Amino acid sequence: MARTSRLSGLRSLAPHERRAAIAAELGIEPGDLGAFLDGGIDLEQADRMVEHAIGTIGIPVGVATNFVIDGREILVPMATEEPSVIAAASNVARMARPLGGFTTTTTGPIMQAQVQLLDVADVHAARARILEREAEVLELANAQDPRLVEHGGGARRVDVRIVEGERRVHLVVHLVVDVRDAMGANAVNTMAEATAPLLASIAQGRHLLRILTNKADLRLARARVAIRAEDIGGPQVVADMLEAGALAHDDPYRAATHNKGIMNGVTAVVLATGNDTRAVEAGAHAHAARDGRYRSLSTWERDADGNLAATLELPMPVGLVGGATRSHPAAQAAVRMTEVTTADELARIVVAVGLAQNVGAVRALSAEGIQRGHMGLHARNVAVSAGAAGDEVDALAARIVAAGAVRADVAERELAELRAGR
Ligand SMILES: CC(C)(COP(=O)([O-])OP(=O)([O-])OC[C@H]1O[C@@H](n2cnc3c(N)ncnc32)[C@H](O)[C@@H]1OP(=O)([O-])[O-])[C@@H](O)C(=O)NCCC(=O)NCCSC(=O)C[C@@](C)(O)CC(=O)[O-]
Ligand SMILES: NC(=O)C1=CN([C@@H]2O[C@H](COP(=O)(O)OP(=O)(O)OC[C@H]3O[C@@H](n4cnc5c(N)ncnc54)[C@H](O)[C@@H]3O)[C@@H](O)[C@H]2O)C=CC1
Q1: What is the CATH number of the domain that holds 183?
Q2: Is the CB of 257 under 6 A from ligand 1?
Q3: Which pathway is it part of (predicted)?
């Protein structure tokens, strides 16, 4: 475990000094974080990863500080192009420390593959016939992945769903698989393809789609945090945050933005660790609409002591084996930083960071507004876009923040004045 994640003042260090400070907390060498220096992969490796590769695109990786998750001090790698995300997560993690930080639970690494069956005359009887032969189906599925079974995973159950659609009734078989430390898509897809002919023959029909569902609602991760009112801006800020949370529950227009704030944190950790951002995002938004209406993924309350009590639950299909996580040196360094040894532990960190991010954004919206903190940090991007270089960047950013106008036209004018010595 990191000695502490409470690294105040990291912002004033140079990147190499930050790497040294983080390595010291983790008891590793700064060189162990060296993969972040050049993005971790060269063109040769990129060419092996995707088709028609022509290069790579750099995304900054930063470290969210101050996190205590289930009693453990965690330094969290985050890959994001957006300013103020890492600052906001670190800020809320700091506020959460007096009451013990974040507490998480998970439902275990259970993924599901769907096999669509067509041309079945008697869907109800077919369902019964498939369930009668569940053991045979599971045995065939598990024969596809002895390594997963060796690691304690494997196909656990068969569910058969009769989906009443607008134009027809669908017969869909779910293979419910414990994928242990894998994200699991390839693992369950292989099982679905192998068992589909057997399922079709039992149903006396034919199979069509054989693929994982990204509505990974058997693989949930949950986080909870309590923050004292005085640590988050006072009782009025807490009251206003509850109003903001209520609107996000009721209004899909607000819910989409509220959830985007959550995904600022979630996607950044998922990307840094080489996991599949689209799978996590698809699962999250499906979960947000699980009662038929798109709602916020988090809940906001005031506890008996007047503290803000926030929770977040979402599907979290992330892995430590397979995908890019194993093969990408920067993803490996990111996993090392988190010190997790199971996919379940990684899922807990991701959901805690999502909740911190959500609280951070809504706190700012309920207090001073988003522009002060966010645009203050975005000012450096605006300065670079206006043509500032080297030392000019920070100087120009400071000028446009002081002018209260973090805009391209103001930045260009101020840059001209800066260069003219005014
Ligand atoms: C940016 C802050 C945190 C400043 O807030 P502040 O109160 O000025 O911060 P501070 O300078 O007093 O520092 C407090 C702590 O915050 C962290 N911190 C503070 N600044 C930095 C920094 N530069 N670099 C690294 N860490 C920083 C750091 O942990 C620091 O502790 P320390 O290290 O000093 O002991 C605050 O204004 C904030 O949280 N703003 C919200 C930012 C945000 O949510 N950005 C996301 C982008 S907007 C969006 O996409 C989503 C949205 C908003 O639409 C979602 C929604 O609507 O729900
Ligand atoms: N709809 C979707 O989300 C889809 C996603 N994908 C992609 O699939 C990839 C992930 O698939 P995976 O099956 O996770 O990858 P994978 O097939 O590369 O690795 C999983 C395999 O690793 C082995 N293994 C070794 N140690 C293990 C352990 N401790 N726990 C579990 N398995 C262990 C098992 O044989 C297991 O089947 C991602 O790259 C994702 O982008 C692919 C198709 C569809």
Answers
A1: 3.30.70.420
A2: yes
A3: Metabolic intermediate metabolism; (R)-mevalonate degradation; (S)-3-hydroxy-3-methylglutaryl-CoA from (R)-mevalonate: step 1/1
- Please give the share of the chain, as a percent, with pLDDT higher than 90: 90
Domain holding 91, by residue range, is: 10-107+219-367
Catalytic annotation, residues: 82, 260, 276, 374
Residue at 3 is within a domain: no
Quote the ligand 1 centre to 102 CA distance (angstroms).
Answer: 18
Detail the DSSP E strand segments found in 263-386. 298-302, 308-315
400 lines ligand 2 (CB under 6 A): no
**pTM summary value:** 0.95
- Closest C-alpha residue for ligand 2 atom 9: 323
87 lines ligand 1 (CB under 6 A): yes
Residues 6+ apart with CB under 8 A from 358: 258, 261, 262, 265, 298, 310, 312
Q: Give the H or E element holding residue 74.
A: strand 72-79
336-374, pLDDT tens digit by residue? 999 999 999 999 999 999 999 999 999 999 998 887 777
How far is the centre of ligand 2, averaged over its atoms, from the C-alpha of 343 (Å)?
A: 12
135 falls within a domain = yes
CATH number of the domain that residue 284 is part of: 3.90.770.10
Ligand nearest to the CA of 255: 1
How many domains does the chain contain in total? 3
4 assigned to some structural domain: no
412 and 321 inside one domain: no
**Are 227 and 362 in a shared domain?**
yes
Same domain as 238, residue 100: yes
pLDDT digits (tens, 9 = 90+) for 192-218: 999 999 999 999 999 999 999 999 999
